[in-house]
Each structure stands twice: as structure tokens, then as C-alpha cells.
């Protein structure tokens, strides 16, 4: 079986969603609550990113 070379010098991509500023978990939850308070399909990307940010914190 041939040896497989692995390049460990490459940095793995962040699992944190892009475009979300550095927020504490409480701040993120408050932003999410405000975003879903009134239905607005224009904010779906923001809602998804905030949920993703919180999901990363839970893991």
C-alpha cells in the first residue's frame, strides 16, 4: 500500500459563519430574537448565520 502524504501546514477553514461580528452568546441570542420578532424574508441569511453561530458554541 502506498504512503499518503498529508500537508499539515495548511490551515483548516473556520467553522464559524462568515459575516457575523464577534458577539457573546447572549448578544447573539438577543440579535436572533430581534431578527425573528417580525417575519421578514429579507433577514433569512442573518437568521441562518446567527443560528449557525449559536450552534457552533453549543458543540
Q: Could you explain how this protein is built, in words?
A:
This protein has helices at 25-37, 44-58. The chain is mainly α and 59 residues long. It is elongated and about 60 Å long. The protein starts with 24 loop residues before the first helix and ends with a helix. The model has no long low-confidence stretch (mean pLDDT 76).
What portion of residues belong to β-strands?
Answer: under 5%
Average pLDDT over all residues: 76
Helix content: 40-55%
Instruction: Characterize the main sheet.
Output: none
In angstroms, what separates the terminal alpha carbons? Answer: 36 Å
**Count of DSSP strands:** 0
By helix and strand content, what is the structural category?
A: mainly alpha
Tertiary shape: elongated
Q: Rg from C-alpha positions?
A: 17 Å
Number of helices in the DSSP assignment:
2
- Which parts are unreliable, with pLDDT below 50 for 5 consecutive residues or more? none
One letter per element, helices H and strands E, the order comes to HH
Question: Short summary of the structure?
Answer:
With 59 residues, this protein is mostly helical.
SSE map:
Elements (H helix, E strand, L loop, with lengths): L24 H13 L6 H15 L1
Amino acid at each position: 500500500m502506498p504512503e499518503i502524504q498529508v500537508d499539515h501546514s495548511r490551515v483548516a477553514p473556520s467553522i464559524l459563519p462568515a459575516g457575523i461580528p464577534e458577539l457573546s452568546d447572549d448578544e447573539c441570542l438577543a440579535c436572533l430574537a430581534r431578527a425573528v420578532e417580525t417575519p421578514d424574508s429579507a433577514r433569512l441569511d442573518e437568521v441562518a448565520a446567527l443560528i449557525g453561530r449559536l450552534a457552533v458554541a453549543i458543540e
